[in-house]
Amino acid sequence: MTDPALSELLDLALEAARRAGALLRDGRPADLGVAATKSSPIDVVTEMDIAAEKLITGYLTDFRPDDGFLGEEGASSPGSTGIRWVIDPLDGTVNYLYGLPTWAVSIAAERDGERVVGVVEAPMRRETYQAVLGGGAFANGEALRCRPTAPLDQALVSTGFNYVAHVRAHQADVAQRLIPRLRDIRRSGSAAVDLCDVAAGRLDGYYERGLHPWDLAAGDLIAREAGALTGGRPGLPADGDLTVAATPGVFEPLQTALDELGAWHD
What we know:
This protein has 266 residues and is of the alpha+beta class. It folds into two domains: 2-141, Fructose-1,6-Bisphosphatase, Chain A, domain 1 (2-Layer Sandwich); 150-259, 3-Layer(aba) Sandwich (D-Maltodextrin-Binding Protein, domain 2). 36% of the residues lie in helices and 26% in strands. It has helices at 4-26, 47-63, 93-98, 165-178, 191-199, 213-225, 248-261, and strands spanning 34-37, 44-46, 68-71, 76-77, 83-91, 104-111, 114-122, 127-132, 137-139, 142-143, 156-159, 184-186, 205-208, 229-231, 243-246. The strands form three sheets. The protein has an eight-stranded mixed sheet with strand order 4-3-5-6-7-8-9-10, with helices on both faces. It has a five-stranded mixed sheet with strand order 12-11-13-15-14, sandwiched between helices. The radius of gyration is 17 Å and the shape is globular. The protein starts with a helix and ends in a 5-residue tail after the last helix.
């Protein structure tokens, strides 16, 4: 990496994610419960989500007090430097609540609106994913590349479901009609981990409706830097309507199928 500014941002994101991951892994109370709900009674926030975001924003502010923030648990400030940190302190909260291992800390840095750094820390996997715009993607120091291209009917694809009942019902209908066109489908419960699994060659593709910027910011960059393609509906970037990430040969047919099946609306 030749840009010292991006090197600084990466180092800060790595350390903040490492600290938050350690807090979440080692500090999880035995009687962990729900602190609040979001979109529905089953879309939850725990005290550890809040504590992890506070740790991350506090650490980053110590070094870069004038940067902006956008965090899932309420951190929001415009900043004055052109740098904005997009933070999901605990992606996969329901997994974490139940003691399942698929959860992660996701931190991205944007410069003048463009994502330039992404870090996903998955403590229970003992894996740290990272990417810098134009610099490739890595996991624990090893370069990542997405899988070689496969036909759609041989593709393993992951997805996620909304916590609002009627939205989830439509998503289940889309998945039911999509499955016969694929090798199979998976559901991990963490968008950040799914995007990194595309980057690492563990999945041929991933799609989901209803993601927020903090869900996808770091993972989207990591997937793209590993050679995957990402987007939303045909011709549009990944967003809350639809996020698609896949190997180059799977991306277009998967995106087209999802558009035909109405995966972009409720």
